[in-house]
Every structure is written in C-alpha cells, then in structure tokens.
C-alpha cells in the first residue's frame, strides 16, 4: 500500500470534516449537549463528523474496520483498522474554547502505520506515515532538543471520571511544578501529543485515555523522533489507558519520576 498517497487522502477527508465542525461551532449552543457519562459530553456534531469520516475512510480502504468513539461503526477487520476521534476536546468545543481537533490513525494488525491530527481553530494539520517522518502543513517537524526535565514544558490532562489514580497523578504534577518550566492543560490529548511532536512541549503524560485519544498523536510523536510508552516504559499505550510521550532526551528522567510515583502508590 502507498502510505504517502493514502496519508494525503486522509488529510483531505479530515479537513473536509473539519470544515463541517468549524461551521457548526458558529451556531452551536450548550442546549444541544448530551451526556454519555460523568463529565463526558457529546453532541450531534461529534456523531455527524464521525459518520462523515467513516464514510470517507471506507472508500480509501474498502475492507478496513473501525474503532470509533461514538460507535457509528465498530466493525473490526483482521488487517486494517481506523481509530477515530471525530472531535477530541468536545468540552472545549461546547464551551467555545478554541482548542479541539480530529484524530485519525490507521493500524495494520497490531502496528500503527499512519496518523493525522487536524487542529481546526489554527488550521494545523499534523500527519505522519510509517518511515515517512512527521509533518505540519507540508513542513517537516521534529521533537525539541531540550536535554533536561528542568528546562522542559510539559502537558497533561485531568481525569474527568476515573479518579482511582489521582494521588500518584497529582504527585507527578506536584514534582513537575517545582522541577520544570511548567505544565499546561489544553483539553485535548491529541493536540498535546502533536505539540510534543513539533517541539512546543517536551513531554506529556495522562491516564484513563482511550485508543482514539492517543493513537494518531502517539504515532506522530514517534515519527518526529520522540519516545512513547506506558507508565512502566512498555509499549501498551494505545489500549492500556496510560501514556508518556517525550523527546528522546528527557524520556528516562521523566519516566523515572512517573514510575516512582505510581509504583509507590500501590
């Protein structure tokens, strides 16, 4: 399969759906919000965007399966599966805060081979395909060259329903407040990850995320020269509900902090 051409076509499909989301935001009101669970918001915008993406991506690989947030199509294939978040940062979208995106990844059996994250407000399309590097609007991107945690800017996301690991999470947060340039919480894990990929952040950590939140962004970080793992330093970050993503230089230092805090809590 020609992943370069496929990636270009995915970018086109994602931007088309992004146009729909951008237009809907102009007239959107909070009265149109539904609740899937505690603090877990959704609207017709998420659902319609997902249907558009499923339709477009089905045409690119007719035999492909899907892993989708809004369950419009969760028929999995033995070979190619798309992992889709039609609107990552729904709470931001609902409240009119300009940081939300579309996240699409392609997995070949157990391996990620393509990722696209389109931040709608800034019209920034981040994308990568296997062994093709990482890109932002046609320009190659790389993780930052910062060498120490104390000179790093980090990102995280706050759990909104699963508070089981809040103690070690906040201990890492506390450590980073004292020992880095600071932490940011943008409200979209996919955006956090691609900001690591292009060097705006040096690192990101969060637990409780789903595959559609992290798959595309994590793959783009890897293709940009970064390192991605679970909290143990292993590779179970797409489906394992915990993720660290950093530039290569600070990975061991930051992983050591996360390991120490989360292991001590057990």
Which fold name is given in CATH as the topology of the largest domain?
Answer: Fructose-1,6-Bisphosphatase, Chain A, domain 1
Radius of gyration: 18 Å
Low-pLDDT residue intervals, each spanning 5 or more residues: none
Number of helices: 7
Assembly of the depicted chains? single chain
Descriptive report:
The chain is an alpha+beta fold. It folds into two domains: 3-140, Fructose-1,6-Bisphosphatase, subunit A, domain 1 (Fructose-1,6-Bisphosphatase, Chain A, domain 1), CATH 3.30.540.10; 149-264, D-Maltodextrin-Binding Protein, domain 2 (3-Layer(aba) Sandwich). Helix content is 36%, strand content 26%. The strands form three sheets. A seven-stranded mixed sheet has the order 3-4-5-6-7-8-9, sandwiched between helices. A five-stranded mixed sheet has the order 11-10-12-14-13, sandwiched between helices. It has a two-stranded antiparallel ribbon with strand order 1-2. Strand 1 (34-37) and strand 2 (40-42) form a beta hairpin. Helix 4 runs antiparallel to helix 7 and helix 5 (189-197) runs parallel beside helix 6 (211-223). The longest helix has 23 residues, at 3-25. The termini are far apart. The mean pLDDT is 95.
């Amino acid at each position: 399969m020609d992943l370069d051409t496929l990636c270009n076509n995915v970018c086109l499909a994602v931007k088309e759906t992004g146009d729909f989301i951008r237009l809907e935001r102009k007239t959107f009101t909070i009265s149109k919000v539904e609740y899937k669970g505690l603090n877990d918001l959704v609207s017709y915008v998420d659902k319609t965007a997902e249907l558009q993406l499923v339709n477009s991506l089905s045409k690119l690989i007719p035999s492909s399966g899907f892993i989708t947030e809004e369950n419009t199509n969760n028929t999995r294939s033995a070979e190619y599966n798309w992992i889709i978040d039609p609107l990552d940062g729904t709470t931001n979208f609902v409240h009119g805060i300009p940081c939300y995106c579309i996240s699409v990844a392609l997995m070949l059996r157990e391996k990620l081979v393509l990722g696209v994250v389109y931040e709608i407000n800034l019209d920034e399309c981040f994308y990568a395909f296997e062994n093709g590097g990482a890109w932002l609007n046609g320009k190659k991107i790389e993780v930052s060259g910062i060498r120490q945690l104390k000179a790093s800017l980090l990102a995280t996301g706050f759990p909104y329903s699963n508070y089981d690991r809040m103690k070690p999470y906040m201990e890492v947060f506390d450590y980073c407040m004292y020992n880095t340039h600071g932490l940011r919480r943008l409200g979209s894990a996919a955006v956090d990850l691609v900001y690591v990929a292009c060097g705006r952040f040096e690192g990101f950590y969060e637990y409780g995320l789903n595959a559609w939140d992290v798959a595309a962004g994590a793959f783009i970080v890897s293709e940009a020269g970064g390192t991605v793992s679970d909290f143990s330093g292993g590779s179970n970050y797409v489906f394992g509900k915990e993720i660290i993503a950093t530039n290569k230089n600070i990975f061991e230092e930051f992983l050591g902090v996360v390991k120490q805090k989360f292991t001590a809590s057990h």
